[in-house]
Amino acid sequence: MMKTATEGKEDFQCLVVLSFDEMKIKTTYEYDTKHDQIIGPYSQMQMLLARGLFNNWKQPLFVDFDRRMTNAILFSVISKLHQIGYKVVAVVSDMSGSNHTLWKTLQINENKSWCMHPISSENIYFLADVPHLLKLICNWLLDTGFVLSDNSIISKTPLLELLKINAGEYEICCKLTETHILCKKSQRQNVSLASQLFSETTAVALERYKPGSDPKLCCDLAHFIKEVNNWFHIFNSYTPEIFGFPCKSAYGKYITTQDAAIDKFCKTVKNMRCIGKKSLQVFQKGVLISSTSLKSLLHYVKEKYNRSYILTSFKSRRSRKFIFAFKEQRRTR
């Protein structure tokens, strides 16, 4: 089916991004009526998904249980896609322990954000799942805070002070609630909470009202939030162009402004440290690797396929709805 779909397509329409995700599932036995067999019990479900870089299509290619993603599985899928006319140019995953191990095996790091295609020997660029990175940045800020390159500290303290003002007669930051700052357990996995905390609205409120006793801390945190917000929008674009909002437009549409925002945030992330830590944490490495990969990927598609921009929302794994659909399909067979 996929091979037939390549007929009549231009080369750039066959460029593929692979994303994979592991999900905890209910540990129980299930009966497969079609094959008359008992399945399970399993605790984790792994799914690998292919999607078009410039075409709006998605196709699950690999599903297994209690099995980590390996370079052997990954290269096998890449090779089979190549044989039917699809070229994998990027791979997306979160920065969980097993995935980070795979990245290390392939020698993916801040200085080398790619591995070699097993057949064509061209670069395949690795990117971290940006919503997952955003949650990690948020959790580290709320849990420890950061020490910046000039030894100044940013923490959640101004946000707590902002809540006190919010609780008064006037609500100055409608997006910010106690849940955003004191979130626990599953709430810490909520991307919406993290994106609302790292919003322009929050940053402007901090700059304007400077809650608490330390105005500099408020301004430093506001600047950091703006950097996170701009970087996140660049890596999560759905529309080719949004006039007046270059960071929300497709990457490449406002390349000078977008690269400046990426470089600024990368400089901050590279030079800051989580309080109590001496080295870069996984989320910091993810930001740096993804930034390098996105720039390299755009340069590649410009040079080889004459594409001037990339809609970066492809980077989000967003494969969980396919996992749920797959599980439901098995139940109804």
From TrEMBL:
Residues 132-240 form the Transposable element P transposase-like GTP-binding insertion domain. InterPro entries: TNP-like_GBD (IPR048366), TNP-like_RNaseH_N (IPR048365). It comes from the Eukaryota. Residues 2-106 form the Transposable element P transposase-like RNase H domain. This is Transposable element P transposase. It comes from Stegodyphus mimosarum (African social velvet spider).
